[in-house]
Write a structure and sequence with these properties.
The structure holds two protein chains of two kinds. Chain A has no helices and eleven strands. Chain A is mostly beta strands. The chains are: A mainly beta, B mainly beta.
Chain lengths: 113, 115
């Protein structure tokens, strides 16, 4: 398996623009997580899905953030409109069997100028 | 509320030294504990996963221990190499029905192994 695949690896955008981050989890994993990492706050859970259904979105900072998982092999995290304070590395992770750990993607480094 | 603390925040050692990274957590009702490695500007690589019923896990030069009763885990790295330089993150997964998919992360230990 190629692991968790995220795209793009880097994104630079202007304030106010819409940004869409993409994630392909490991095949067979039924949990998918979106995290944000900054120097100040470390890793923060934004939202997670189980069997494509959002379970907990309490970490989503505000209405400008939205996430979808239309099928078991694809998820998106959208920021509209983007702001400079959204600049961070966004990670996607997936998990399968209850006893298994978590596998992370390589992340998307977002810079909003 | 679970809190995970990693000490030290940064560590610099000469090559070849054996070293211990520490992780402490406040709520012993965990499902498992996982150690990750993160290289600068890169993603997170899982190193070792310890289930709540286990006391330790080993992989190559790495050994992780878990003592739930005292709320501690250690990551032991034997014969350190410059390639071990990275940030090491400890994370717990909740052990109760309402939180068992939530991960609580430490802020990491930044390790530099000098040749």
């Amino acid at each position: 398996d190629a692991g968790v695949i995220q795209s793009p690896r880097h994104e630079v955008t202007e304030m106010g623009q819409e940004v869409t981050l993409r994630c392909k989890p490991i095949s067979g994993h039924d949990y998918l997580f979106w995290y944000r990492q900054t120097m100040m706050r470390g890793l923060e859970l934004l939202i997670y899905f189980n069997n494509n259904v959002p379970i907990d979105d309490s970490g989503m900072p505000e209405d400008r953030f939205s996430a979808k998982m239309p099928n078991a092999s694809f998820s998106t995290l959208k920021i509209q409109p983007s702001e400079p304070r959204d600049s961070a590395v966004y990670f996607c992770a997936s998990s399968g069997l209850d006893s298994s750990g978590y596998t992370f993607g390589s992340g998307t480094r977002l810079t909003v100028v | 509320k679970q809190e995970v603390t990693q000490i030290p925040a940064a560590l610099s050692v000469p090559e070849g030294e054996n070293l211990v990274l520490n992780c402490s957590f406040t709520d012993s009702a965990i499902y498992n504990l996982q150690w990750f490695r993160q290289d600068p500007g890169k993603g997170l690589t899982s190193l070792l996963l310890i289930q709540s019923s286990q006391r330790e896990q080993t992989s190559g030069r790495l050994n992780a221990s878990l003592d739930k009763s005292s709320g501690r885990s250690t990551l032991y790295i034997a014969a350190s190499q410059p390639g071990d330089s990275a940030t090491y993150l400890c994370v717990t997964r909740g052990g109760n029905a309402g939180n068992n998919r939530k991960l609580i992360w430490g802020l990491g230990t930044s390790l530099a192994v000098n040749p």
